[in-house]
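Write out the bound-state structure for nicotinamide-adenine-dinucleotide.
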Amino acid sequence: MSDLQTNIARAEAHLARFRDTGVLNRIGGADRPALSGATFDNHSPVDEGFLCSVARSDATDIDAAADAAHDAFPGWRDITGTERKKILHRIADAIEARAEEIAFAECLDTGQALRFMQKAALRGAENFRFFADRAPGARDGQSLPSPTLMNVTTRVPIGPVGVITPWNTPFMLSTWKIAPALAAGCTVVHKPAEFSPITARILVEIAEEAGLPPGVWNLVNGFGEDAGRALTEHPKIKAIAFVGESKTGSMIMKQGADTLKRVHFELGGKNPVVVFDDADLDRALDAAIFMIYSLNGERCTSSSRLLLHSTIADDFLARLKARVENIRVGHPLDPQTEIGPLIHKTHFDKVTSYFDIAKQDGAQIACGGNRVGDTGWFVAPTLFTGATQDMRIANEEIFGPVLTTLTFDTEDEALEMANAVEYGLTGYVWTNDLTRALRFTNRLEAGMIWVNSENVRHLPTPFGGVKASGIGRDGGDWSFEFYMEQKHIGLATGQHHIPQLGA
Ligand code: NAD
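---
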């Protein structure tokens, strides 16, 4: 058997139980179908084959989960940070032990290539370990003495929170949002994306087997417009941590207004990679290709706009085109595959619609621009050239293996183009001129910028975007700022004068 056939057989074995039982909700430590009995079918992006049925929940299921999270909150809040740390490390251990199952499930459910998903479990485990180690200090505050008072601050967990995640790298993103919530002492209701429910279910099972008390983490499946919406409107849910599209973030803000929901949004991007002619062009080429064509281009931090100094553009584009034409599209479980199928027909239709849009706007398709095969949602890695910043392909998030290239003559022009979009998640700048790097990054509108590097995550640093790319930051202590409330306590140090009325 080839590596691919072996992997398919192993993946089928891991997923067989979901085919039999479907993906159920997990509420208060118990498996629950949707209270209405409704389900929806989940299909593989590889060949549209049936993967499993999934609970199609509504507001009544969200009610049950919010009640469970509410009831579990005092117990979880009040156990020591050291105890929380131990449980979160045990979750990390169990994630590592089930790495193959997680990787294979993620590949078949989302279409992401195994070469990247092999690390999904390890990255998820790292997220748990990072926040586990911070759990004992989560409540730490400051001492701010004044002449008459000893002022101290402390932090307390905000309460039960809702976590809503998208379908791109759903396992890693779920751990990234849920680990800090648990470390802070919050309880959680998680609503994963309807297109990719499987690893969220594996994750909650792992957490409970590792000793997380029932009700601390609840999983409710379903569609955004019913289960998702009900979660954002629920009065017992104190905050919503959301990762997804900018327009959904805007809807959630409205939906949460009546209950004054605290929100944290990680949204879309149209991120520039700016290459100046003094840069190390070999490394810039590798990084630009990696940041748009890895993870099927379904990546919020992808470098989807390449801004090239006109003096080097022709040569750089020729080398880029040769490399893009060489990228291997194939079955996600084939170890050789670099790009797998897009998640779903709806998304495939969106991505491929930009092939015509590019032509209508007057850009050229230097390579790709077509479907690959006639089953599944495979798209050839695509390169648009001759684009200008006013075109839709230079402004809208396509979220596929599609790169738009533009050229500039001066640094000011590059900056203007880089900042011309509604988004501001990441930026990548390639130059060996230190002063230019400082000047440019200072004026670039993005929450995260890398100079002479692809996106390399370091968990203590802040993760998030500006403009339509988000509100709030994750990582380091920033995650706790969201999941916790600051509290000030002033203790009189003596008999200071208290103004007397009516005396
Ligand atoms: P999406 O906004 O369509 O869906 C995300 C989640 O929101 C899903 O679980 C969905 O069911 C739910 N949802 C939809 N409508 C809702 C509503 N009215 N109320 C409550 N929940 C609702 O996003 P997607 O297509 O699944 O994911 C892709 C998007 O996510 C891209 O825009 C990408 O850039 C973004 N993303 C951002 C980051 C980041 O860190 N900034 C990371 C990953 C993905």
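---
Residues 164-168, 173, 191, 193-194, 223-225, 228-229, 232, 243-245, 248, 251-252, 255, 266-269, 300, 397, 399, 425, 465, 469-470 surround nicotinamide-adenine-dinucleotide (CB under 6 Å).
The domain at 3-267+469-488 is CATH 3.40.605.10 (Aldehyde Dehydrogenase; Chain A, domain 1).
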